[in-house]
Amino acid sequence: DGLKQCLSEFKQQLAWVERLDVTSGQVADPVSQSASDKDAVDPENDFQREMSFYRQAQAAVLEALPRLRKLQVPTRRPDDYFAEMAKSDQQMQKIRQKLKSKQEAMERSEKAKQLRAMRKYGKKVQTEILQRRQKEKKNMLNAVKKYQKGLSDKLDFLDEEQTSSQGNKKGSANQRIKKGPNAKRRYKNQKFGFGGKKKGSKWNTKESFNDVSSFRSKVAHNKGPGKGGKKALNKRPGKRARQKMKSRAR
């Protein structure tokens, strides 16, 4: 009686379209022909129990759809229906940035792994070269000791050392030929020129000696404007002129 009284207190007499509640009993399996299988659902069998719930929900939907159509309530989504996503654009942007940062971190990790592998390989090669050189040096010292003690009269180790040094020299010479002049030499070539005779290139010839068309007497005898007086006559020639005078005197 108390439960019925509480139910009557909060129960609201609303129209069905506001409540949309449908009550249906157990629905028989349409595949089975006998009606005796209606109550034969094993509650311990998960598959039978879930199928019973599914058939009951399907029967409720088939009962509610005609009533909704009768009340002119649309039950199908229109083709141009626009629904907002469950996640906002800001959240999706954050997810995209996080995925991008993860991908960049993986790329950095992969590059670091490659660098470590290359360093490891370089160290290995360097160690092998040092070991080979030490072995060659040890063999040569042993051969020298044997020769000094008179245990051996062969000087093959000197020939091997000489050929190896010649090979290194040839290799370095080839490298120099391939490399060409260095930056300092190229700069000097560009600034001062190269090749050909330099010394005495400005000496007079017979034609230049006989050509006096550019001679100016006032300039030659210091009689031009601002050139006269005792100062001009006693003026010391420049360094370049003095050097030329010395070279001519020699």
Automatic annotation (TrEMBL):
InterPro entries: Ebp2. Residues 101-113 have a biased composition (Basic and acidic residues). Residues 114-123, 176-189, 228-250 have a biased composition (Basic residues). The keyword Nucleus applies. One of its GO terms (biological process) is ribosomal large subunit biogenesis. Residues 25-44, 99-125, 157-250 are annotated as: Disordered. It is found in: Nucleus, Nucleolus. GO terms for cellular component: nuclear periphery; nucleolus; preribosome, large subunit precursor. Coiled coil: none annotated. It comes from the Eukaryota. Belongs to the EBP2 family. Required for the processing of the 27S pre-rRNA. This is Putative rRNA-processing protein EBP2. It comes from Pygoscelis adeliae (Adelie penguin). The lineage of its organism: Eukaryota, Metazoa, Chordata, Craniata, Vertebrata.
